[in-house]
Each structure stands twice: as C-alpha cells, then as structure tokens.
Write a structure and sequence with these properties.
The complex is a heterohexamer, with three copies of chain A (about 325 residues) and three copies of chain B (about 100 residues).
Chain A: H1 3-11, H2 14-27, H3 36-59, H4 63-89, H5 96-107, H6 111-123, H7 132-152, H8 171-180, H9 182-203, H10 206-211, H11 213-232, H12 235-263, H13 268-279, H14 285-293, H15 299-329
Helix pairs in contact in A: 1-15, 2-11, 3-7, 3-9, 3-11, 4-5, 4-7, 4-12, 5-7, 5-15, 6-13, 6-15, 7-8, 7-9, 7-13, 7-14, 8-14, 11-15, 12-13, 12-15, 13-15
Chain B: E1 4-13, H1 18-27, E2 33-41, E3 55-62, H2 64-78, E4 84-93
Antiparallel strand pairs in B: 1-3, 1-4, 2-3
Classes of the chains: A mainly alpha (about 325), B alpha+beta (about 100).
The structure holds adenosine monophosphate (3 copies) and sodium ion (3 copies).
C-alpha cells in the first residue's frame, strides 16, 4: 500500500468520516447531541479496552523485546515537553505559565489518536506490536510532570527571569490528579488485569472489548467532532502562532518518535504508531492536571490547540505521514 | 409548625472543583449538601464541554454565619482563576437544628 | 412460511415481546425505568447503524436498480400526507392545523417500524434489498414539508376558508429543524459514511453495528413499551375518530406502498418493508418540526396517534399483513 | 481442575480483578466515576440477559428435570431467612426489625454473585444447567416475603415479647415493590420472552446478550468495586458480630445449597452455582422492599453487610469453596 | 406585567420516595412539579449511591397554604425514618392562577 | 464582603425551546446561564417523555430590569402555545458587575 493509498484509506475510514460528520452536524446547528453519560461511558470503555489488550499482549512479550521501546518512550516523554517549552517561550513568545501548560499537553498523549493510528496500521495490513498500549501508559505521565516542573522551578535553564506571580495551584494536588486520574487508572488498571488474566482469561471478554471496539470508536469520534466544532470558533482568538505550533510540533515530534521507535527495535508499523502517539496532544489527563497546578494558564489556549488543531491534523494527515516516514526509514 | 429562616448557598462551578468545594463547605460548618450536574456559560473563557464533563451545582442550607464563611472562602480561593459563582438566598426550614442552627439563626 | 406463520413468528419475536413487557411493566407500576441517557444513546446507535448499512449496500447497488424504488418512495412521501390531510379534514372533521400536524406524522416514517419489518423479512428467510435504509432517508423529509405547506398556505385545494388565526410558528425554523434534526443527520450521515467507506471499510465496525443491532433493538423496544404505556391513558381523550384513523391509515398507506414498491421493481420482501415504512407514523422527526411550525397543534393528538395507536398496530399486525399482501401480489 | 486451581483462576479472572480495581481506584481517591445512567443501563442489560438465557434454556428443558431443582430452590428461599433470623436474634442479639431486614437480604439472591459463579463453572469446563437463571427468579422473592412476615407478626415462634413500636412501613406497598421491582420484572420478563421466542428467535439477539455479556460484567464489577469501597468505612461502625455473620452465613447457606442442589438432581456445577446463589445477599430487590416495609431498620447495617462483607467474600473465596464442596459431595 | 408572590417548596429525598412525594404534592394541591436527579449527603446514615440510584429534588410552586400543607405532610410522614429535607422560598410568578392561586395568595 | 441583591430568573420549559431560550436571555442582557435537565408535569397536555428527551431548567442571575425583560419576553412569545414557566427570586451575590449590574441594581 503506497503512502497516498494509506492517506486515502485513512480519510475514508469510518472513524475519520464520523469525526467529520460531528463537525458538520454542529456547523449546520443540528440538535444532535450525546447525552453526558454516553461520552463518559465510551471513554471508560475505550481506555479500559486499550489497557486490557495491551496487558494481554504484554503477558506474552519477552521483557527484553519490550525494554527498548519502553525506554525510547520514556525518553520521548521527557524530551518533547522540553522542546515544546523552548519553542513556545523563545521564538513564539508565550509566557512561562502558558508555555508550560501547552508543553504538558504536547508531551503527553491522546489515546484516541493512538487508536486511530492502530487502525491505520491494520488498514495497511501490518499490525503494530500488541504491547503498544503499554507504551501509551508510559508516555502519558512523565511529560506532565516535566512540564509542571518547568513552571514551578524559577529560572529554568538559561531563561531570563520574569516577574513571577505567586503560584496559585498546588504541585502535590496536580501530581495526585495525574496519577489517580481516570485515564491513568483505567489504562494501567486494564494493563494489569490483562497481564494477570492472560490470553485465556481474556478470551471470554474479547467479543465485548475487541469486537465492539472499532464501532464504539465511531460513536466516540462522532462526539469528538461535535466537541471540536464548538472550539473552532476559538481558532480566531488563539492566534496564528499557536495554530502554527499545533501543526509543526506534531510533525517534528512525530518524526522524532518514528525514528527513535525504529532505532529502539519497533517494526515500521509500531514506529509509525509511536510517532503518532508522540505527535498527539493529551486532552484528558493533561487538562485536568494543568487546571489544578497552573490555574492561571488559559484553558482556551491549550484546549483549542489540542482539540481543534492538533487532533484533527493528526487524525487526517499526520498519521499517514508517520506511516510514510516509517516506510521510508525502514 | 414553626418555620425558621436559614440561608441557601448555591455554588455553580467547573467539575474539577467538585471534591474541593464539597470538602470546604463541610469543613466550614454545613451538615449536608446537594449536588446537581448542570451545564453553563459564564464570563470565563472556559466552556464546559464533554471533555471536562458537566459542571456542578452545589447547594447547602446553613445558618447565616456559615453562609458568610462559605462565600468568603470561595471568593478568596477560587474567584481569580476558576469558573465559579456563588449566591445566597433566604429559605425557611422546619428543623433548624438539623442544619447546625439555633432557633434564631 | 405462510401468512399466519409470519404473524405468529412476529408476535413471538423478542422485539415484540420486549415491547409488550415494557407496557406490562408500566401497567403493574414497576419502578423499571431507563435512564435518560440510555434512550438517547440507543436511538443514536440505531439510526447511525441503519444509515451505515444502507450506505454500504448502496455502494454496491447500480444506480439504475435504485432509481425506481427511490422515485416510488418520494412519490409516496408526497401523496400520503395529502391523502391523510384530506381524510382528516373532511370525513373526520379535524381543524386545519391538527389535520396538517397529523399528516406530517403519517406521511413521514418511523425508523423502528422499518427495522421491525426488516426483521420479519429475515424471519421469512427472504431478506429485503440492502439499500432499504436509503429509502427511509428519502421518505422521512418530504411528507413533513408537504404537510406544513398545507397548513401554511391559505385555502388549500378546494377547501372552504376558515377563520385563520395568525401563524404562531415559523416555517423556516421548522424546515431547519427537519433537515438538521438528529434523525436526518444520523441517517443521512450514516448513509454517506457507509457509501464512502464501502464494504471493506465497514467490515471492522460490523460487529458493533450489525452484530449488536438486534439486541440493542430489544432494549429500545422495552423502553418504547414503557413510553407507549404512559400514553395509553390518552386514548380515552383523543376520541374514536383518531383511533380509527390510526388503524385504517396505515393499512391503506401500507398496501399502497406494497403495491407501488412491487411496481417499482422491489422484491416482495422489499415491497413489504416499503409498505411498513409508508404505513408507519414518525415520532422523532415529525413531532419536533411540527412543534415548531405548528405550535397550536395538539401534541396529545399526534403523539398518541403515532405512538399508542399506529406503532403498536404496525408492530403486531400491520407488518405481517404487508408481507401477506406482498406475497399475494407477487 | 483442582480446588486451588479454581481458586486461583477465579481470583485472576477479569471480573474479580475489575472489582479489585474499582476498590483500589476509590482508595487512591481517583476521580474515576461511572455516570449514573451507565450503572443503570448495565444493570438492565445484565438482568434481562440472564432472564433471556434462562428462558431459552427452559424452553428446551423437560418439566420433570426442572421440578426437583425448582422445589429445592423454593425451600431454600423459605428456610434461609428463618435460620438467618434465628441466629441474628438470639446469639447475635439484633433487634427484631434489623434481624428481619438482614434476613430478607440473606435469604434473597444477588444476581451478580450468581453470574460470577456461572463464569467459574465455565472456567472449570463444566457448564451448569442452562436453566439456572430461572432458579434465580424463584429464589429472589420468597425470602423477602418470609422475612417481612417475621417482622410484622407479633411474637414470632417462641420469642420473648419486646416493646413493639407501631409499624412505620406498609406491608402491601413492600409486596408490590418486590413483585414489580425492576429486578423481578427484568428477570421474569426475560425468562418469559426467552421461553416464548425459543432458541431460534433468540439466535438473532445472541451476539448482543451473550457475546457482550462477560465484558459488560467487567464494567459492572468495576463500578461495584467503586460502590463497595465507599461502604468499607462503615465496616468499623457495624461491629464484629455483623462481620462474622456476613462471612459465616454465606458459608453455611452455601454448603446447604450445594448439598440440596445435588440431592435435587443438579450436576455438581449446577449445585455449586445454586450454593453461591443461596450464599449471596441481595442488594437490589431486598433493600428497596425493606426500606418500604421496615423503614426503622438501619440501611447502614444491611447494605454494608450485603455489599462490603458478603459480596466480596463470595466473589473471591465463597464461590471456589462451593465448587470444591460440590466436587467432594459428587 | 403583574408579578405575584407564591411559594416554591423544595424537597430533596432518597429516590425510593419519588413516586410517593409526587403523588402527595399533587393531592395536596400542586398543579405541577419539576423533578431533578441529584446526589447528596445529609445527617442520615443513608448515603446515596449507585445501588439506590441518584436522589431526587422535587420543586413545586404553590400558594402559601398548599406549601404549609406539604411541609406538614412531609414532616409527619417521612422525617422520622426517611432521608428527606424540605424548604420553602418566596417566588414571583406571572400567572398565579396557573398554580392554583387567587391574585392575592 | 459586600453582598448585593440581584434577581434569579428560572425558566422550566420543554426541551425544544432550549436553544431559543438560551439565545433570548443572552440577547436580553444575561451574562451567563446555568442549564439543568429536569422532568416535570404542568397544566399542559404535553408530557415530557423519553421521545422528547428531558425538559430543561434555565437559571440566570441578572439585574432587576433584565429580569423583567426576560419575563415579559417569555410570557409574550411562549406562554400561549408552549410548555414553559418562569419565576423570579431575589439573590445576593458578591460580584454584581459580573452579572451586568451596577452596585445598586
Ligand atoms: N449570570 C449567570 N446566571 C446564571 N448562571 C451563571 C451566570 N454566570 C455564570 N453562571 C454559571 O456559573 C458558571 C461559572 O461561571 P463563570 O465563572 O462566569 O464562567 C457558568 O458555567 C454558569 O453555569
Ligand atoms: N444542609 C443541607 N444542605 C443541602 N442539602 C442537604 C442538607 N442536608 C441534607 N441535604 C439533602 O437532603 C438529603 C437528605 O438529607 P438527610 O435526611 O439529612 O440524609 C441529602 O441527601 C441531601 O441531598
Ligand atoms: N406548579 C408547578 N411547580 C413546579 N413546576 C411546575 C409547575 N407547573 C409547571 N411546572 C414545570 O413547568 C413545566 C411546564 O409547565 P406547563 O407549561 O404547565 O406544562 C412542567 O413540565 C414542569 O416541569
Ligand atoms: Na505527545
Ligand atoms: Na408513513
Ligand atoms: Na441468599
């Protein structure tokens, strides 16, 4: 399958089309609307399902095979918030708090982008490593911690001192929020359950968690479209600097992820999926932690960037790009 | 039946504050509370959408001085950075002691 | 399978029994109750699933094969509100506003009745044309527009002028409501997604949208039973005229649909399903539009007729009748 | 599979692990939380699914085969509230109202414990009789009636008269509550639908109600863990008497059920499942009825006992114990 | 536009009482009601969790004398054993007759 | 802490009106609003069931003159044909300017 075929297949996949339908529905002011509980229910289901599948795969993976990709993922979780922060501060001129807030989002990972990348891997016929969900769990947390440290430490590496308002948020509360947040609990919890239950124990629940997965994702992306469309109006207010960052950062981070994934021993498909993970911006774990640790940061900036710029970019163009890059590097 | 005046303090806040506000009102003297899921829009940029989950309305019936403590606490702690409003009304209840009040609260 | 066998198989199918259970539960004052979100979630799922399946089927249907049935459906969407209106006005003596409101409902289509008819087709072993859902989308809107025009135009064809109160509702708002309403968005959106994704793209989401469909329908009909039972009390207030209309109209419209479907080239099963569609009365799209365009119309009349009379009639007796008629005509 | 293997397989099954995850999530103060509607939706689904499967199985079971187990179940439904009551009153010293309230719970049955026992049967490779769900329906109601009668009748068999406050609750209202409660309606309704639809009618809805069942149960048990954890704090207040009762009663009742099940002709697997049913304490049907009939009884006592003591005990240790006993008796 | 004072009676109760309370307020003279699902905590041991389903808030707009009847009924019938609170506020409405009131209720 | 009186206007309406009412109150001067899903029964034949979805309660805190404009608008536009009620209460808030009010509103 050539790169353009992958692009076409991706754009015509039910999940991308469902996302587009959600945006369209809001633009024509449809009364289509998901009940609150449905969104939460789908999120719980999807996160737990990812964790379970990853855990089951991990239960049959030799530690040695997992170690390289795991270390690469952790390294990316530390590096990408730093690069984000540097770029956001100096060339783009964001203040320290908002730069740190954005870095937390761009260093962490969006589970839905990850899943979308997995689908593309299957479209191309070359499934990624089964334990990829374990990497998602590894990538989620470190970046948030690193980014918040940037904001809390005075005078970060070589940066000019700036008038530093007293911190309104609490570092400990934020750490607790990240580690006990529902996305970490469900992902990690699912991983451990899958690991302990193994393939045999998992077989019984497979029709529910695997068979139904992709369809549930279609519903979820329809709702994501509705939610994203509500943020499109904010694109005008966030400025062209942030829009540029929201497109260039995922490209750079994604290519870095693809390359490092390959170096660490992932298959091309796995490297492409890792690239998509690194390219993605979190919108569940990161916003909650940042709201607590950095309440002065503007949610309009980071939510609009993550949801209305980077997510659609990755979903449509980014993921196919990372697959092309992985093929080119392989 | 004697009906005694107390205060109904209502807070509407972004979901994230739910746990904190509940703890705070109980610490400040409320003997109970009622929570409702709501959606809303205010003067803050933060819009409440599916990602955050719905906002929360927290209602507590308390004596006047507790009401004042709650309003002050919320104003000081949350007004600057968070999406939250607070308002106070008078209500009549039958069992004032239940809400931590003497007869003439 | 003879007509009586079909009738028996239909009455003993899980969906009809679930509907009966819902009615019974309400009659014995059970505290059984669906959370608000569950009803909405099931409706979203069912409508999207119908659309998707229709779209996929359409993607492998030659345009020529689809054209005849499509035109027949559109014709029925224009004719049935007119016949409904005529009968409701003159012999039955309803005022113009309520006659138009009822005509909008009886000209449009109930998605659940449609699905129930599809199941019966499968029971008989002769599946209807795969693109039938596309016909549902075609049948849903025109009748509502025609009926509202009847109400808005003064002095409709040969009718005595009557004291015409000023219109309280808005024609444009109603049109927007119909076209952007969630049932049209989900059905049409699903059709387009299915059409673009095709059989291959759809395969992944099939377990969710096809495998789970009939079971989800059982839950939905249980809730429909609960809802319908709440309306049964209104049967006493709406009068025998409306009850008669609610039974005779679907028979006449349904037989017309069966006949025209056959003429247009549908298989007997397809013609029977088309008959059930035409016979059915809308209770999602039409009520919303009518409430906006004709707020003076009595919701008790149209909701009771559609939900508590015509829906149960079609579900139990009407659908088997249309299959018998289709066999007889074939 | 030896008894210890069964114990291990049970403790590592996804549903038990999900329950543990729920408890853990609450203990670390995670913000993980199920929307109200999701819990209700899962409960409706699970109860209806159990009923349907039982009904279908019943439709192919000769009445003679079912009669013995049915009578044994009814007998257990009458005896266990009496034994519970006697023990709670005299040796444990609970007052009449609370003793009756607890007896209603321990005489009735917890559907989730039942399902968990079914899974273990499948783990061991020896499926229990298909009609077991019909026995659940038989076991649910009688115990509640017996226990409430104990509270309402003055001077129950040989008991010292005690100062008898006037009854605050209503006997009739409670009876209505039990018989029309959602768990009875869904279980019994499902049974009848399954019985009437038979295997053929059920085939269509099987992917939804059977394929998805075990996975849905994982979600449900995750939520049960969250709910149970909230009650763990009450363990300190309910006292050691009740904790002891909450562990010893299920063992005694369970072994009685296993033995009588075997005598009545159930397979060892079936007898073990019946044991688990008898051992379990209701927390849907019984609490609602007791709250109405005996409002003076303390919900903290009976809910904590049923949810935070007996349910986790059965889920982890009780069920494997009953399988071991059934094997030993066989 | 004439705005007339009536009473808003609010009940917050465990879910089980929903049907009874709705019937009671209608019997006692309310012409309508509004129900909201809420979660709460009070002085009773009964906590409201997923097993019971959410609690319920019942609001009725009524003339003063109906408000008094409702408060009395609830206090007598439910205060001892059930989890329920009731409070009363004054509200201004436009169509007093709709709520079963004469102009000067 | 200065606490200033404003008006809390509450609308309870059939779901269909949600979008219109929200737009209307913002147009008429409200700076925010809070929406709650409710179920209810009134004097109209329209009962609110699963088909329509739940009804909606819309609460806005506004200065007196905005409250009057909202009540008037709703009464004129919707009372005749739609299921809707509106009532007004006094509330005390801390930041009157946030609700579009001068100090002495
Ligand atoms: N004028 C208002 N009337 C009613 N509710 C309001 C008003 N302003 C704000 N709110 C509610 O309070 C929440 C927080 O407001 P804000 O801090 O202004 O974003 C909003 O989401 C609304 O639910
Ligand atoms: N002080 C209070 N303020 C607000 N709501 C309360 C208060 N006390 C009790 N409630 C509500 O009333 C319900 C019943 O209270 P209780 O009877 O004390 O358990 C609780 O679940 C709360 O929702
Ligand atoms: N007396 C009342 N007290 C509280 N809520 C009411 C009352 N009357 C009507 N409502 C609410 O207002 C909605 C519309 O009322 P109506 O226009 O009378 O159908 C109802 O669905 C109820 O939620
Ligand atoms: Na990232
Ligand atoms: Na029709
Ligand atoms: Na039992």
């Amino acid at each position: 399958m050539g790169s353009l075929d992958i692009l076409a297949a991706n754009l015509l996949s039910p999940i991308v089309l469902a996302f587009a339908l959600g945006i369209l529905a809001r633009l024509v002011k449809s009364d289509l609307e998901f009940p609150d509980g449905l969104y939460q229910a789908l999120a719980i289901y999807l996160l737990l399902a990812i964790g379970l599948k990853g855990g089951v795969a991990l239960s049959v993976t030799p530690v040695a095979a997992f170690l390289g990709p795991a270390l690469a993922t952790l390294a990316l979780g530390v590096v990408t918030p730093l690069t984000s922060y540097a770029v956001l501060r100096r060339p783009l001129g964001f203040d320290r708090v908002n730069a740190a807030a954005l870095s937390a989002h761009y260093g962490s990972v969006s589970a839905v982008t990850f899943i979308a990348a997995l689908q593309v891997a299957e479209l191309t016929g070359r499934t990624a490593e089964g334990y990829m969900p374990a990497l998602v769990a590894l990538l989620e947390v470190p970046a948030i911690i690193v980014a918040l440290m940037l904001a809390y430490m005075r005078g970060v590496a070589g940066k000019a001192a700036e008038a530093d308002e007293p911190r309104a948020g609490s570092w400990q509360a934020a750490l607790h929020e990240v580690l006990s947040g529902r996305s970490v609990v469900l992902l990690l919890g699912g991983l451990v359950i899958g690991l302990l239950a193994g393939e045999e124990g998992f077989a019984k629940v497979e029709p529910f968690f695997v068979g139904g997965f992709q369809g549930a994702l279609v519903l979820f992306l329809l709702e994501m479209g509705l939610v994203t469309a509500r943020r499109l109006g904010d694109l005008r207010t966030v400025g062209v600097r942030l829009i540029g960052f929201g497109i260039v950062a995922p490209i750079v981070h994604g290519l870095l992820g693809v390359w490092l994934g390959g170096v660490a021993g992932l298959s091309p498909s796995g490297a492409a999926v890792l690239g998509a993970m690194v390219a993605s911006a979190s919108y569940i774990a990161a916003p909650a932690a940042v709201r607590i640790a950095l309440p002065e940061a503007s949610p309009t900036l980071y939510l609009t960037a993550a949801l209305a710029i980077t997510f659609p970019f990755n979903l449509t163009l980014g993921i196919p790009l990372f697959f092309a890059a992985a093929d080119w590097l392989a | 039946m004697d009906i005694v005046p107390l205060r109904l303090v209502t807070l509407v806040a972004e979901r994230l504050l739910r746990g904190r506000l509940v703890e705070a009102v109980l610490d400040l003297g409320a003997t109970g509370y009622t929570l409702t899921e709501v959606h809303g829009k205010g003067t803050r940029g933060v819009k409440h959408n599916a990602i955050d989950g719905p906002s929360v309305k927290l209602e507590v019936i308390v004596p006047l001085e507790v009401a004042e403590r709650i309003v002050e606490h919320v104003a000081e702690t949350y007004f600057q950075h968070y999406s939250v409003i607070v308002y106070v009304q008078e209500v009549k209840v039958v069992r004032p002691a239940k809400y931590g009040s003497g007869r003439d609260a």
